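1st attempt posting a full record on here, be nice pls
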Amino acid sequence: MAAPPPAAPLALSLGEPAGVGPEIVAAAWRALQAAGPAFVAIGDAALLRRQGVPVEAIADPAEAGRVFARALPALDLPLPAPVTPGRPDPANAAAVADGIEAAVALALSGAASAVVTAPIAKAPLYAAGFRFPGHTEFLAELTADVPFAGTRGPVMMLTAKDLRAALVTIHEPLAAVPALVTAERVRHVARVVHEALRRDFGIAAPRLALAALNPHAGEGGAMGREEIGVLGPPAAALRAEGIAITDPLPADTMFHDEARAGYDAAVCLYHDQALIPVKTLDFWGGVNVTLGLPVVRTSPDHGTGFDIAGTGVARADSLVAALRLAAEMAGMRAAAQI
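the predicted structure (as tokens):
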């Protein structure tokens, strides 16, 4: 189901300035300048100019559409400290957070249609007093007081080609996962994903596939009983609510071509269960999506790339895919007047 492009531009935060963010933002503009979607970069305009593209500082995001075909529009947030590629400086951490906050504020006001975030580095942010595990939790805090008609996230979902994989736990040690995978968490994540597929992806009757925790889905209890005692009951309860979700399925047979045709999103229980198939399917083009927030948010499915920052070899495929997906999701929300 196609949606009209959003009227307002996307707001793209620059992320960690010493990483690959500035160069992939410039490359994304080159890739999209002719056909869009239009976006406004939020960050240091001088740093963006050093990436070899024309940059036009604007005061109002509404100017982005007029500017976009000839120059990268930027809301200029000058950095307090010089940038050396590959060497993050905590002195710039507050400006990184300010860029994210500005992007969210624009989306909440309607001046931007969605938020797209270039990668951040956690260590310099933590050194400067940043108290959130990452983007997802920060965005949830920034939108916590904003009304939202739906089951509230945040829930992380990764997309690649025809695969959408949502996570019940994210950056947790594997040894901690069994205790963290609870019936309530599974129900909550499934509800958020179901609603988001309808609202943001235009899927009228979403089909969810629930991944098992143990090999062979526990083999009837012989290889673990979580499928019987923890995962099966919430799946049955969700079906009683009208949500189409499978009983726990063996994860090793969920992600081949024929299996993916049978569902619209997979509910996965831990990090690698979702990210290995996503990155195998499309390593360069995967997108990280945050579901269940009052704003649409996407990001590239990779990090800051300090080892290649400034060398000109960073690929912008994932950021381009994130921008396109954000525009599609924002268009869906606008069409539904959400």
